[in-house]
Predict the 3D structure of the following.
Amino acid sequence: VRALIFGGTGMVGRALAAEARRRGWPALALSRQQADITAPQEVAFWLRAFAPHVVFNCAALTAVDRCEEQRERAFRVHGEAVGELATAAASAGARLVHLSTDYVFDGTASRPYREGDSTAPLSVYGASKLVGEQHALESPGSLVVRTSWVFGPGGGNFVATMVRLMREGRVPLRVVDDQRGGPTFAPFLATALCDLARAGVTGVVHYRNREPVTWFGLATEIAALWDARVEVLPVSTAEQPRPARRPAFSILDVARFEEITRRRVEPWGWGLGPYLESLRRAGHAEAH
Ligand SMILES: NC(=O)c1ccc[n+]([C@@H]2O[C@H](COP(=O)([O-])OP(=O)(O)OC[C@H]3O[C@@H](n4cnc5c(N)ncnc54)[C@H](OP(=O)(O)O)[C@@H]3O)[C@@H](O)[C@H]2O)c1
């Protein structure tokens, strides 16, 4: 499977390139400098030059709060450009696998969100990602994978932020306890994406790790593994207002994924321990 990856130097893009190569797939992961998805001629160049079977789109503006003030840019990158990419990939004979987010939902559900449930984004990030999903699905053969709360090497993420705060001595950690979701380890997501691409799955699929938790719950686990002396205090979203609204409940139902792949999604804890160890080693290396 020849795999071309846009947004290839972000957290998910890197994990995906590593997983594809581990499988012996020829994989080309492109940075924004090499291929800006809002520049159709750059996209066309790489599609011609590499002739991929599958195009993974991991390019996005993942600073959710910043998207509120960069509305036009967010809709350009997450919306319009995805439509152009989908059309270009289809005419090059490649299938598009596009990444999307739990933030397309408003979080008022009382059970995990299924792929067909109504969307109602609360933020510019979520609304623009939803437009991209719709554009992606206009090209037959496309797959949209919604995921949530991704952490791992190669990008900014919640776990890295908690570690930074603990290193800087900014403790106790105060973390919101009224937003519940599914943390996802980037390398597990990469495996899932490759499995789905290989199986030729189309439409929308949800993927996250198990079990769902609040940010406070996740931070408690991070602190316990990093430095058991660190105290973590629960706060409410109202106490820590942010520019972009987040869903209070954004648990993705992963039954479709589990049915397709005939395996359960991994526990996020399997990724958290090794990732924290890698951050600890990197910190030691820096200190010497
Ligand atoms: N991180 C999460 O928690 C999370 C949760 C749900 C869904 N997702 C989705 O997962 C996908 C991958 O996210 P990630 O976590 O890997 O984010 P990331 O680490 O921020 O990586 C995103 C990459 O996209 C690149 N990019 C931005 N604008 C671009 C453009 N116009 N053309 C080409 N590349 C561009 C960025 O490059 P620069 O850094 O050079 O700008 C960056 O390398 C995204 O679709 C995101 O919406 C992520």
